């Protein structure tokens, strides 16, 4: 039999569910775990999810239509599913559709907490009993990755919203500071940064598969990024991470990892974070291991 995990949100939101998904897997030992969501995310958890069903595929549309009758092909596919962990709002028709398809155990939780507080702990509240510090940190599956020597400082200037982005001029200033001291700098660039032109001579990691990017981040020296899914990815990969926050509340949305420092704007706008604010944190965080050049 199999157990279904449904999450159709953004990358950072998905990563915050990984500790809860690990508890769910333990509670369903021996069952295959299937992700109904974004297939690219399936390889990130540790251990990886066994199978991924693309929530955008036409076959699954009936789960969200509100109709009681499901198509025969979908019913056959769901016949292997005995339980489901569903991150969806209370008005979602998905839990009822799964129940109508014969799924016996369904646990639903709103995707976001109702009040400020770490979102990872909110998801873990589904499971009784104390949790260790390690169990409260998202854990990724990390493959091998070739990186330049020395390990790079990684900058990610984008996010899902322009208002979450630290001014690009300050990212460039930070890049120059590192380069002047002999550091290797890599820029993470995806669809949100497709118009960004990186100065000649700088390394750009453009639209890498998430598993590859996570492996590179795990072997990097330092990461600096905005409130974004990639920053959550870096933190979960164990990279020393500087997370820049403006309007978002870091009490809820701060990434969790073994070496993470949040720099929050005093004005709630990203302009309120100065170059000096970020530089001092970078020096301190990297200096905890072997120092900056």
Structure description:
The chain is α/β, with parallel strands linked by helices and 293 residues long. The chain folds into 2 domains: 2-136, Rossmann fold; 153-287, Glycogen Phosphorylase B (Rossmann fold). It is built from 10 helices and 11 strands. It has helices spanning 11-16, 18-27, 72-78, 94-100, 119-124, 168-180, 210-218, 229-236, 250-253, 275-287, and strands spanning 2-7, 32-37, 51-54, 81-87, 105-109, 153-156, 185-189, 203-206, 222-226, 241-245, 260-264. The strands form 2 sheets. It has a 6-stranded parallel beta sheet with strand order 8-7-6-9-10-11, with helices on both faces. The chain has a 5-stranded parallel beta sheet with strand order 3-2-1-4-5. Strand 10 (241-245), helix 9 (250-253) and strand 11 form a beta-alpha-beta unit. The longest helix has 13 residues, at 168-180. The protein is elongated.
CATH superfamily caption of the largest domain: Glycogen Phosphorylase B
Number of strands: 11
Strand percent estimate: 15-25%
CATH T-level topology of the largest domain: Rossmann fold
**Could you say which structural class the secondary elements and strand pairing correspond to?**
alpha/beta
CATH architecture call of the largest domain: 3-Layer(aba) Sandwich
Across the major sheet, the strand order is 8-7-6-9-10-11
Shape: elongated
């Amino acid at each position: 039999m199999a157990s279904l995990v449904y999450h159709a949100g953004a990358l950072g939101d998905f990563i915050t569910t990984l500790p809860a998904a690990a508890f769910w897997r333990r509670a369903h030992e021996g069952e295959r775990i299937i992700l109904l969501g974004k297939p690219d995310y399936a390889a990130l958890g540790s251990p990886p999810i066994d199978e991924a069903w693309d929530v955008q595929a036409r076959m699954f549309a009936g789960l969200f239509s509100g109709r009681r009758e499901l198509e025969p092909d979908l019913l056959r596919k769901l016949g292997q599913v005995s339980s489901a962990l569903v991150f969806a709002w209370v008005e979602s028709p998905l839990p009822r559709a799964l129940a109508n398809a014969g799924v016996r155990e369904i646990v639903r939780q709103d995707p976001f907490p109702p009040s400020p507080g770490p979102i990872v702990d909110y998801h873990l509240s589904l499971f009784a009993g104390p949790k260790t510090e390690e169990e409260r940190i998202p854990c990724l599956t990390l493959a091998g990755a070739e990186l330049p020597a020395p390990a790079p400082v990684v900058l990610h200037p984008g996010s899902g919203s322009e208002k979450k982005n630290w001014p690009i001029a300050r990212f460039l200033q930070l890049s120059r500071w590192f380069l002047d001291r002999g550091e290797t700098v890599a820029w993470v660039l995806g669809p949100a940064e497709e118009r960004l032109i990186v100065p000649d001579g700088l390394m750009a990691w453009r639209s890498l598969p998430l598993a590859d990017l996570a492996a590179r981040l795990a072997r990097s020296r330092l990461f600096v990024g905005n409130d974004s899914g990639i920053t959550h990815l870096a933190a979960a990969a164990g990279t020393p991470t500087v997370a820049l926050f403006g309007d978002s509340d870091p009490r809820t949305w701060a990434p969790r990892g073994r070496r993470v420092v949040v720099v929050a704007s005093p004005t709630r706008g990203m302009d309120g974070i100065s170059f000096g604010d970020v530089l001092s944190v970078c020096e301190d965080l990297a200096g905890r291991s072997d120092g900056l050049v």
